[in-house]
Design a protein that fits this description.
This protein is mainly alpha-helical. Helix content is 72%, strand content 0%.
Length: 347
């Protein structure tokens, strides 16, 4: 689990790195083409996060019933401390630099825009997020609110495993068909992959799905974004393919943790990245911008290999701020209760 989170957050890092390093790469060269592919591949990191979140949150809710407000308070505690700190930083930087293009000119509308961002509405709703990556938190919180209702209304705790698997598959088909027909937040479907993953693992399914099959399906998930798929119908197909691919990857890792894939995903550096992944996800974009701002006077022009040579220094430069957020805010305020069983899962 921690290693898969590490993979997911590194993929997201590649998206923003590919964007910000582009001024140092010659136009029309091989590096520019490669960065376009890396940017596309990195986008599925968020989809992998959604699968893991669906697995954890759904699994926790299938246990003993808990008061909804207690459950919601725990979710708020998991998400908001680190988010509020990063949100305040972005807000202060926007005001101090005068770069307030995203804010409406009317003071009341600007205040409403800030409130909408605080409530994590950008993403599910067509609102420009102040923190670029915060759109996914909107998806997360919508899932947090929806899944307890689904578990209760469908009486999923009282159903058999086979019934629940059929139910999740039916929801998946209906969701993808509706998104194909009418558009909308199609990547919400990835949470259903996590729910299905939980049922397959809990039911003992997939023991024959080994490391090679898991790796190949995981690579398929990375390759799908490279295909041109415009329009709602093809976007729904794309998400369906990534859904199946990451389901296969996670199933192999979870069902055979002693296999070479599971051992690889338990590599300590990947697990370390997974542990700080939420703080890193929130703040690495700003840290990358600061790195490239500082780089410009030192290295005003790049070359064909600039994107490769700057990759490791750029990643290292993101770690201090993100680690400070994790150690100073996320771990003491959001994760302290995990030691006593108070919190499960991650954002």
């Amino acid at each position: 689990m921690e290693g898969l989170r590490g993979v997911a957050v590194l993929l997201v890092f590649l998206v923003h790195y590919a964007t910000l390093v582009s001024p140092w790469v010659p136009d029309g060269g091989h590096s520019e083409w490669l960065l376009e592919q890396v940017h596309a591949i990195g986008n599925v990191g968020v989809d992998l996060f959604f699968v893991l979140s669906g697995y954890l949150i759904y699994g926790s809710l299938l246990g003993a019933p808990r008061p909804f407000m207690d459950y919601l308070a725990r979710r708020v505690r998991r998400i908001y401390p680190a988010f509020l700190v990063v949100f305040a930083v972005y807000l202060l930087l926007a005001l101090a630099s005068g770069r307030v293009e995203r804010f409406p000119a009317d003071p009341a509308a600007a205040a409403l825009y800030v409130l909408q961002n605080l409530l994590l509405l950008p993403g599910v709703f067509p609102i420009d997020p102040l923190i670029t990556v915060a759109w996914s938190l909107s998806y997360e919180f919508f899932f947090y609110l929806l899944v307890p209702l689904v578990v209760t209304v469908a009486s999923l705790r009282a159903r058999s495993g086979a019934w629940r698997i059929g139910f999740v598959l039916l929801c998946t088909v209906l969701a993808l068909l509706s998104f194909a027909a009418w558009g909308g937040p199609v990547r919400m479907s990835m949470f259903l992959a996590g729910m299905l993953l939980f049922e397959l693992v809990r039911g003992g399914h997939g023991m024959g799905w080994g490391s090679l099959a898991g790796l190949l399906t995981g690579l398929l998930g990375l390759a799908v974004p490279l295909l041109a798929m415009p329009g709602p119908a093809l976007q729904a197909l794309r998400v369906g393919l990534v859904y199946a691919a990451f389901l296969g990857l996670c199933l192999a890792a979870f069902r055979q943790p002693d296999g070479w894939l599971g051992r690889g995903l338990s590599w300590a550096p990947l697990r370390w990245m997974g542990n700080i992944s939420y703080s890193y996800y929130l703040l690495h974009g700003l840290a990358l911008q600061l790195f490239f701002i500082g780089l410009k006077p030192v290295l005003p022009v790049g070359g064909e290999w600039a994107a490769v040579l700057l990759l490791l220094p750029a990643w290292l430069a993101t770690l201090p701020l993100c680690l400070a957020l994790y150690l100073g805010i996320e771990r003491p305020l959001s994760l302290a209760a995990r030691a006593s069983g108070g919190l499960r899962g991650g954002a």
